[in-house]
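Re-run with default settings, no changes from the original entry. Doing this only to confirm the output is reproducible before filing.
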Amino acid sequence: MLPDISIRQLEYLVAVAESSTWARAADRMGVSASALSQGLAELERRVGVSLFEPAGRRRVLRPAATPVLDHARRVVGLTRDLLEWSDRMQTARAGRVRVGMIDVAAVVHFPNVLRTFRAERPAVELLLSVSPSARLLDALRDGDLDLVVCVEPPEPRPGVELAELRSEPLAVVAPAGTTIGAPSSWGPWLLFPSGSHTRHRITERLGELGAPVRIAAESHQPDVLLQMVVLGLGWTVLPVDASFERVDVVIGPELVRRQLVLATRAGSVHDPAVDELAERLRVA
């Protein structure tokens, strides 16, 4: 028989993990510190595993508690989906779609899809968040987004389903006047920050080619990286589009291809507006 774990106990666990102190977690949940502590103690008893360990005068999550925390986040996110769907069904109010995209998807690949959807579905509140892939997938997992268009992550994400959208080539870009020679002479590099899915693919490929990866600067924004190349601060690797015709740089060979994917929460309650936008993105 499954243990009688409550959604509230899982919410307590997520709140403690995301708050700097237990007192702030209790305030966030609208309960007393003792009620929070009792709820988490009951969760530990029902799970049968100690989730916390002392750290000075505080209690912190043990590393071994990560699977329980991941499960709690998925359950809380899916429960929010169910409650929001129920509210829409009972009140017959207009829906809402929260979509997250990396900047190139929002600005270059799919702006017409978003514009047309908004024009044809004026009663649906369309909320767009533009961020790096890892941050968007975390927001999707936590129930803060309904759809995400991002770079395919290097490792599977628990509770997230991926559908391929398009394969995008990324080329070497060097300052004006540069001669693109052997890979051993390339760089220094202006790249996306460490932890970026795209940077992982780029540095992996540079290593295979024997190119030194000396990082001169970082930015999440492709336009900023391109402008730094124009200033002669280094080389970069970007998807090449029409905007490159307006700047004085040298376009080198294709270095790698990255896969853009549509990410959704596994097992999420279906919302007709969300499903419609997802289908439009798939066929665009």
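The beta strands are 52-55, 58-61, 96-101, 125-130, 147-151, 160-175, 189-191, 215-218, 236-238, 249-265. The chain has a mean pLDDT of 90.
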